[in-house]
Amino acid sequence: MRAAVHAASGHRLGAAHPRQEGPADLRLVPPALAAWATAALVLDVPTGWAMGVVTGALLLAGALLLWPARGRPRPPAVAAVFLCVAASAASAALHGADLWRGPVPESARRYATVTAEVEVTADPRLTRPRVRGDRAMPPTVLIEADVRRVRERGGATVTTRTPVLVLVDVGGEGREGREGREGGGQDGQGERSRTQPAAPARWLSLLPTTRLRVTARLSPPRTRGDRIAAVLRVRAGGQAPEVASKPSTAQRLAGRLRSGLREATEDLPTDARALLPGLVVGDTSRITPELEEAFKETDLTHTLAVSGANFTIVLALLLGPPGLAQRSERRGLAPRLGLHLRTTALLGGLLALAFVVVCRPDPSVLRAAACGSVALLALATGRRRSLLPALATAVLLLVLYDPWLARSYGFLLSVLATGALLTIAPRWSAALRGRGVPPRLAEALAAAGAAQALCAPVVAVLSARVSLVGVPCNLLVEFAVAPATVLGFAALATAPVAMPLARSLAWCGGWPAEWIAGIARAGAALPGAGVDWPGSWAGAALLALVTVAALSASRRLLRHPWWCGVCALLLILVVVQPPPLARVIKGWPPPGWRMVMCDVGQGDALVLAAGEGTAVVVDAGPDPALVDHCLRSLGVTRVPLVLLTHFHADHVAGLPGVLRGRSVGAIETTALEEPADQAGFVRRQAAARHIPLRHAAAGERRRSGPLSWQVIWPPPTPPTTTAPDTESGPNDASVTLLVRTAGLRLLLLGDLEPPAQRELARSPAAAALKDVDVLKVAHHGSAHQDFAFLRRIAPRLALISCGEDNTYGHPAPGTVAALRARGATVLRTDRDGALAVAGEGRTLRVAGD
Fold it and tell me: In whole angstroms, what is the distance from residue 284 CA to residue 275 CA?
């Protein structure tokens, strides 16, 4: 039967290798590139200019087609370029006009308050929580939508269709909701969907095509050239959205399928639970900031988004592996079932439609479906020569359909990666096979290397960083992506009818998903996983030149295996950076360091050496990534104690970064648990990792290796000068330490303010505070200091942790002057970077990173 089907299709059974065709057909490439460039330039120009471009392009195309040249007609290829330019300019002008016409842009310029009916056009998403000063700002729900009706106060209702961004402030849901939100948003290992309070969850569960009624304040977009005409800021508090009309039937079906997949993955381990929906349908709602950062560091972010690879894997089930698609004998389900190729093509089209519906018809999904479909269809014909025209056709049609894709970095990366796989990868694979590399390994190496070479300059523009582990990490996860995707789609399809089976399939798919997440985490944990790079187009051009030079040199190196081995060893040393070697090369950390003040921006994080690879951490700063980077640079893997002086966000929000991949013995905090949301956040962090949590008490003395410390503040009862529930209450309840190490005395004041400083000066511990060696200046060097107390301490070295160009004026010039007047050397992280204190006895040295 299978032989009859293929014979009827015009293919000779058993023809393992089709006839090699001529050189690549590039005729459609110039029109596609011309349409792409035209759309990117015309989108935000006045309509008159756009119509001028259309008219001029049409006239030039007509002249080329009608006017003879030396007795012969001009080649139609050039005319096709101008026709595509005209079509692209017209489409871009129409789409760009949406940002100018109607009442919404004018109302936005006046910051008017309006009542609007908006139609959701994409999945709502939650912003990352951020720290502003000492407060953790609640996340905001972002909703892309079209305004369909709008009415200003006292005015008439106007029908329109204007793209906007809706920002929903859901911060008013009460204490329990705030604790749930903070736990989900800031926890590097947390699970957002389990901790989201009711109000944000109702907004986040809205499906595309749903219509809402909102009362909002309009404002212009921050940058010109965005896809939106205005920003609608909705202060919802704990209110649920007011739904004007339900979503379409297709979107309700897609929503049920997606929610079924989330339910099927509910009991998986944390990483698999977060990653599997992202691999299958691009649902990244459970991806934590820490895991997302790991994927960025290892250039694996493409696995978290719906791409042409997802669709290619699904179609491969029908048509067979892409590697065999150039042969007449395929191994997919279609030939096994005896399906005619036309029937197979019809089923592929239906599969593409289902893929778009389930993954939502936003531009990235449409791009993935189009590119995946045309590329695999071209492979299925066995005509390699049709691959580039297929890609060019997809680019042309997509840019004409949605000109905003012309300015999308995701679209650019997708096209570059696909182009690399179609043009560069086959040649590199053939070269590697010619040098004895096994075929499967040669194809994998060529594909990963080609995609990395073409995409790296664009990635550098976006992240200002170049990954050195991107190629090996992509190779290691490649074999796991297909089974995870296939099993995930199987769980998605079976969840509505057989949830136990869907859970079993999801459990099986969780294993490769865990592998992918593990590779991302392991790669990102390497000290030399990436290098900083200029995040500009000039930097991208420089990286492209470096890449070309490296590729040219590698061709010569391949002739000398010994030199290849030396270069590979050097690259491994750069990436792994063994601590002794890194210390010699970078000079950081300095030998014999006793304390390091990490550069964590506007916040505090200090590290006290307690042995080889062991340190006590005092405060965690506002950002998990920054404190984690600091501890990694110091080689700290064991933390017997994390002491949080008080619960302001600039001291505790980075706690997940301290706990990430380290053995932690205990967490100590002040007894005053204010602000309550941050205190709850710390409790959840400790409980999730089964770390003991206790309160520090004045008079407490402890030791860890060569390090000893004494808690000298706060007293058992709150200070009498400040009410605990005021702004100064948490500051004045800061745990204050007197540390002794190698004959040095260090005083760490937390954020103590003048009232508490004066009481501390009158406390029994005051006698031990004279002539300390190192002072961690309170409250980032603010002006709120008791200068008599500073004169009494008379430190030799004063360290201030503050953020560059912070808006609080830290450190205050008066505080710096008072310290220097007593002979102290004053250093600050905003200018000097991370600061390491070394020495013993009267010998005191300090070095900056």
Answer: 7
Q: DSSP per residue over 149-202, as a string?
A: EEEETTS--EEEEEEEEEEEE---S-HHHHHHHHHHHH-TT--HHHH--HHHHH
Q: CA-CA distance, 607 to 614, in Å (whole number)?
A: 10
What strands, in cross-sheet order, belong to the sheet with 825-828? Answer: 701-704, 707-713, 736-741, 744-748, 774-776, 797-800, 825-828
- CA–CA dist 693, 175 (Å, integer): 21
Residue 311 exposed, middle or buried by CB count within 10 Å (0-12, 13-18, 19+): buried
Bridge pairing between strands 744-748 and 774-776: parallel
Q: Please state, as a whole number, how many other Cβ atoms lie within 10 Å of the Cβ of residue 1.
A: 10
Q: Residue 827: pLDDT above 80?
A: yes
Instruction: Specify the pTM.
Output: 0.79
pLDDT confidence of residue 381: 54
- Token pair listed for 465: 């960083």
Question: Mind listing the pLDDT tens digit for each residue in 691-736?
Answer: 999 999 888 899 998 899 999 988 876 554 454 445 568 899 999 9
Tokens read off for 508: 């099986």
Q: Which amino acid is at 29?
A: V
* DSSP state string for 94-158: HHHHTTTSSHHHHHHHTT-EEEEEEEE-S--EEPPPEEETTEEEPPEEEEEEEEEEEEETTS--E
Q: How many angstroms separate the CA atoms of 274 and 276, rounded? A: 6
Question: Cβ distance 765 to 738 under 8 Å?
Answer: yes
Work out whether strand 140-152 and strand 113-120 pair parallel, antiparallel, or are unpaired: antiparallel
Report residue 635 as tokens.
Answer: 């080689």
835 class by beta-carbon count within 10 Å (0-12 exposed, 13-18 middle, 19+ buried): buried
